[in-house]
Amino acid sequence: MTIPAYPTFPRGDSELGKPVGILTLKIDDRDVSARRGETILEVARENDIFIPTLCYLEGLSSLGACRLCLVEIKGVTKLLPACVTPVRQDMEVVTDSERLRRYRRMILELIFSERNHVCSVCVSNGHCELQTLAQKLGMTHVRFDYLYPRLAIDASHERFSIDHNRCVLCMRCVRVCDEIEGAHTWDIMHRGISARVITDLNQPWGESETCTGCSKCVQVCPTGALSEKGKSVAEMVKHKEFLPYLQIMRRNER
Amino acid sequence: MEALKETASKAQDETSKRADDPRWRRVNRVMRLHGYRPNALIETLHMVQDTFGFLEMEALKYVAKTLQVPLSRVYAVATFYHFFSLKPPGKHTCVVCMGTACYISGAAEIMHEMQEALHIEPGETTADGAISLVTARCLGSCGLAPAVVLDGEIKGKMTPAAVLETIERWQADASG
Asked: pLDDT for A155-188, tens place per residue?
């Protein structure tokens, strides 16, 4: 199939003759088509083009918080997060370059240096999205000083525990609890370096009035921050398959 | 359904109980003016802090319930903004500006001396509840650097000795 190139056409004209709402663009020099309103990340995933993500999770609203999905767009000097940037006609996206690799590695290093991510003693060792990303993006060392904060573990809940040492503040637990479960038990207190996820009025998880104990937050947590009790090192495997189904069900209700 | 009704009537009781207190009437008024919309949260917390001096846990629960905002969201907002305080303030308050201009003109030294004299960290209140030590990020009075706010009054070009003098007066007040 040959798709003609439209670089010299003004935007709008080049959409003539195509089905309504279908856009064509280039990702990594590949011609791809997309529906209007889709994000770069969605289109890339549909076409099996890899863009690293940490806070993004299909089925939840997008935040653009972790910045790992930054991509280069021709004609734009800034790097833009693919998960919240909608596609446009004739856009030329680069998802992998030396500059992007450098930035992504640095972001990972900063995340690692902020808390105590000690993989060898972590329940999620081997099943951790942060660990997998670090391996995949070739992060071999951390050039920044580790902060080694002394953070508490809250094991007051009957079935789950939270280890703030492993938390990357991706807000997946906050979003899944609010958007899918509808309880909004989680949120983030303070800001910057002192930000922490909290349940209700910063009370022990076990004493939370609003928590339904549904475990959605545990399943979507990318690291070992939220885990089931009774799991030892490397035993915590998360199951996120429920999310796309639940999202469809919630949408049909409306 | 019954349980829901019960919760609703309990909330009603709580509102009317608080209606007898003029301080709570001020808070209720703000919420009513905004039609009890969840986006009146910050406005309401301002009034609670203005009225009671700080945000008590019970007050946060009451505001959350009345405006139908999740508890964790109320706590998140109350801790995100430095203006809000969850602890009761001391009788006197000393705010040391740690903005860039004040910092380079010796605010850190003032802060250090204060910590020595009061035996508390920034953000804390002395055990007898007499003096609170607070930091601020730029008061917008950079021309007065280093600036310190003593009981709401901005004092410029401060030295550790000058601040300590006031602190000692406050301490004498408290013990005398």
From this structure: 999 999 999 999 999 999 999 999 999 999 999 9
Domain boundaries, chain B: 2-80, 92-175
Task: Please answer yes or no on whether B75 and A202 come within 8 Å at the CB atom.
Answer: yes
Which pair of tokens denotes residue B87? 């602890």
> Are residues A54 and A17 part of one domain?
yes
Interface test with A, best of B69, B71, B80 (most A CBs within 10 A): B71
A80: containing domain: 13-96
Q: What is the ipTM of this complex?
A: 0.86
- H-state helical runs in B20-159: 22-33, 41-52, 57-67, 71-80, 100-102, 108-118
Name the closest residue on chain B to residue A187, using Cα atoms: B72
Per-residue confidence (pLDDT) for residue B18, from 0 to 100: 76
Q: A210–B70: do the CB atoms touch at under 8 Å?
A: yes
| Calpha distance A222→A167 (Å, rounded) | 9
Instruction: With CB atoms and an 8 Å threshold, state whether A199 touches B79.
Output: no
Looking at the DSSP assignment, which residues form a beta bridge with residue B135?
A: B96
Q: Which residues of B touch A202 (CB under 8 A)?
A: 75, 79
Give A108-141 pLDDT, tens digit per residue.
Answer: 999 999 999 999 999 999 999 999 999 999 999 9
What class has domain B92-175?
alpha beta
3-class SS of residue B22: helix
Q: Are A54 and A170 in contact (CB under 8 A)?
A: yes
**Which of A179, A184, A191, A201 is the best mutation test for B, with the most CBs of B within 10 A?**
A201
DSSP character string of A45-95: HHTT-----SS--TTS-----S-TTEEEETT-SS-EETTTPBP-TT-EEE-
CATH number at residue A60: 3.10.20.740
**Cβ of A190 and B60 within 8 Å?**
no
Give the nearest chain B residue to A186 (CA atoms).
Answer: B72
Residues of B whose CB is below 8 A from A183: 70
What does the pLDDT profile of chain B (176 residues) look like in tens digits? Answer: 566 666 666 666 666 667 788 999 999 999 999 999 999 999 999 999 999 989 999 999 999 999 999 999 999 999 999 889 998 888 999 999 999 999 999 999 999 999 999 999 988 899 888 999 988 888 888 999 899 999 989 999 999 999 999 999 998 887 76
